[in-house]
Structure formats: structure tokens, C-alpha cells
């Protein structure tokens, strides 16, 4: 993250709301119903791995909505970043924290804010598979609409679609700011 950073207020002035808080809440509830169907008959709770930092608000909402559906989850987290507070991603994914729970034979649900070019999820999913996970599913609050997504990766559960612009809010940052906004905003180019 380079300083001084661009101001969040100025970014908000040149942004549009793409999904408001109510729309996001409805999408999370609907996703939770689908995800619950996937796991409710399992003897062991899925390992619910939040991809920090961006995945945190969505993961919290989704976990509670799964609880409402009567489905328990075991919490874990990882931190892998390739944007590092910037608005375009680097080639290298930096692992800042790996899950400490053994993944062997576990069903894993990876939970993140956005699937954009997919490089982060591709690497994280492969790592989980290499650890011997029984199966790895991906839930994201939003998928960005473009044709630059890495081959071989897609989300199993998607809340909302966002346009091909830099988006922030609901976990997603604008230069490490704005993650705690309840709506999702897109910068006008
Ligand atoms: O599909 P991709 O193009 O790979 O981008 C998606 C990833 O980028 C963001 O993380 P970031 O690297 O910004 O780390 P952060 O969550 O700590 O901000 C976001 O939270 C996803 O994990
Ligand atoms: O558009 C985005 N916004 C915030 N974080 C992101 N990580 C990948 N794409 C984005």
C-alpha cells in the first residue's frame, strides 16, 4: 500500500452504488439456502474458510445465515493477497496466513468477497486440494463480469454480479479503505 493514499470520499463521489445493503442481504440469504442443501446431511460440519481480509463481512453474514438454516460450520481462515491495497493485482500471490486445521478428508467451503481474475481462488483451491481436502467449494459475494478470468476456476455459489470496474465496499477495499461500507460501489472510469 503506497502513501499518501487517495481519499475514500473522493472515490465515493466518482462511484455508483451497484448493490445496496438490502440487495446484498437478500442475496446472502438465498445463497445460504443453496449452501445449506449441500451440507445439511453431512455427519461432520464443513470447514468454513474465510479468505481474509476482504472475505470477512460476507463470511460473517453467510455463517449466520447458514446457522438460520440449521447448518453448523467450523471456522477457519487464511490470508492470501495479490492486490496488497492497490487497485490492480500483482503476478505473485502472497500467503500471509495458512489454515492451521488439517484439511485431509474434510469438506472445505472457501468464502471470499469477490472472484475477479480468479488467480487468488485458483491458487487457494489448489492448495486445499494438495492438503487432501475431500472436496473444495467456493462461495463469493460477487463475481466480476469480464472474460479475463483464469482458466479452471469458477465459484460454486455466487451472490451477485458486479460490472467490470473497480468495486469496493462490503469487504472490498479502496486502497485499504471502505471495507466496512454496507453497499457495493463501482468506480466510474
Ligand atoms: O480474483 P482475483 O483477481 O485474484 O482477486 C480476488 C481477490 O482479491 C482480493 O484480495 P486482495 O488481494 O485485495 O487481498 P485482501 O483481501 O487482503 O485485500 C479479494 O479479496 C480476493 O481475495
Ligand atoms: O474490484 C475489486 N475491488 C476490490 N478488491 C478486488 N480484488 C479483486 N478485484 C477487486
From TrEMBL:
Q: What EC number(s) would the UniProt record show?
A: 2.4.2.8
Q: Which domain of life is it from?
A: Bacteria
| UniProt xrefs under InterPro entries | HGPRT, PRTase-like, PRTase_dom
A Gene Ontology molecular function term of the record: glycosyltransferase activity
Going by the UniProt record, its keywords in alphabetical order are: Glycosyltransferase, Transferase
- Protein name, entry field: Hypoxanthine-guanine phosphoribosyltransferase
Q: Does the keyword Ribosomal protein apply?
A: no
What is the originating organism of this protein? Lysobacter soyae
PANTHER family noted in UniProt: HYPOXANTHINE PHOSPHORIBOSYLTRANSFERASE, HYPOXANTHINE-GUANINE PHOSPHORIBOSYLTRANSFERASE
Q: Which CDD domains match?
A: PRTases_typeI
Catalyses which reaction(s): GMP + diphosphate = guanine + 5-phospho-alpha-D-ribose 1-diphosphate; IMP + diphosphate = hypoxanthine + 5-phospho-alpha-D-ribose 1-diphosphate
User: Which stretches make up the Phosphoribosyltransferase domain?
Assistant: 18-173
Task: Say yes or no: keyword Kinase present.
Answer: no
